[in-house]
Amino acid sequence: MPTTVTIDDILRPSVVLGKISRNRVQYLTCTEELGLTPKYVVNNDEDGTRDSNLSTPNSVELPARAGLYDIFDRPQDGVNVVGPGAPAELVAPQVVGQVAYRVARFHPAMLFKYDEMNQRRSIGQAANVLDKGGATYVSNQANTLGLRTLNSLEIMTLGMMRDSLYLEPTGAPDAYKLSFTAGTNPIRINFQMPAGNKLKLDMLGSGDIVATSWDNLAAPILADLHAISAAFVKLCGRPLRKVMVNSKGWMNIINNTEVRTAAGTATSPYNSYEVNEEKMADGIRRATAKATLKTLPGVEFIINDEWITVAGTAVQKIPDANAFFCTDTNDVFKLGYYSEQIAEQPGQPPMFKDAFSTWWEHKSDPSGVKLYYLMNCIPMNLVPNASAWGTVVY
Q1: Strands 351-353 and 270-275, bridge-based pairing
Q2: pLDDT tens per residue, the chain (394 residues)?
Q3: Beta strand pairing status for 387-391 and 198-199?
Q4: Are strands 176-179 and 356-363 parallel, antiparallel or unpaired?
Q5: I want to staple 25 with a disulfide (CB 3.0 to 4.6 A). Which of 42, 276, 280, 289 is the partner?
């Protein structure tokens, strides 16, 4: 039966003004702050994807997908005094501990059928501008899939910061989604953060450090920060160096009576405040800033208002009620990555693909091309008591 159309349908012009996105390009802000950002730049030139790697100043190539790393703590005690002429006192060897790791594997793919691609117009162009072979469509989809793959690294980093990361079955064979909460049949990824380094921060077992909610102007925020730093020194020998909050958390800090009084009520409570002017591939400035307080110059505050979608739900990277605290990151956090053997095309010999890789495979019946991404990595917290995830507003 023929389709009925009106003269208005026939004569209405096809006007497409361009291409927009209702979401900005996601950035691995928290991964970067912990020194784990991979050397990968999104290719925005519509000419396909690029291989890269996960080599960072704090990365380590893992020889196997699963294994152990040893814990050999530096001593904080001394040895005993012995009397004149007494034999040497035997000292027990330093205890060596072990923590297991297992690399997470991300391997998404997209199939593009040639017949369908040859019928498409270019994204952002009028209907009479044919996208030859679907080139711009495929390129846009390839970049999007690459970004989604890298977003998974940021989600894992955020889960490590919280020490709350789970794998939940999706229903598909051997497929799991990342989540910050335990759902149905979850598998927990345990980063070993001590219980006292969470919630209200009873870090030394002598009572909560954050005993008053930070949205109370009378809260002893400055004393809390000094107490957190002192607790880190006792636990791991390192002082507090970074605090991550969002804008609401930062306003709670700089409007606090104790903080303002210590800085001088007639002056600004912060020593520096620098908005991150770096722009993403979409040209939008990042939603982060860095600051220092006049009364705590050795601690950097990262103000992060970014959101990310986890298990289908948009969540704040740093929620209003929380703050992340950590010491120097260089020898605390590592990005473990693993290279896997892959045969890109049928009949080809396998080759080692770096920790973050992409390739195409030509298909038949139906004819098309299949895009693959592969990422094998896991953020690792080597000194679990050198960071804390606090509930500071309650």
Answers
A1: unpaired
A2: 566 778 777 676 666 666 666 665 667 899 999 988 765 433 333 434 444 555 667 888 899 999 998 888 888 899 999 999 999 999 999 999 888 899 999 999 999 998 888 788 777 777 777 787 788 888 888 888 988 998 999 999 999 999 999 999 999 999 999 999 998 899 999 999 999 999 999 999 999 999 999 999 999 999 999 999 999 999 999 999 999 999 999 999 999 999 999 999 888 999 999 998 777 666 677 789 999 999 999 999 999 999 999 999 999 999 999 999 999 998 899 999 899 999 998 889 999 887 788 899 988 888 999 999 999 999 999 999 999 999 999 9
A3: parallel
A4: unpaired
A5: 280
Task: Decide: 317 and 30 in contact? Cβ < 8 Å.
Answer: yes
How far apart CA 179 and CA 159 sit, in angstroms, is 8
Q: Is 20 exposed, middle or buried (0-12, 13-18, 19+ CB in 10 A)?
A: exposed
Place of tokens 């009873």: 202
> How many angstroms separate the CA atoms of 39 and 50, rounded?
11
**Helical spans, DSSP H, in the chain:** 7-11, 29-33, 114-117, 135-162, 221-236, 247-254, 257-263
Element (H, E) at 60: strand 59-61
Radius of gyration, CA atoms only, the chain: 26
Give this prediction's pTM: 0.88
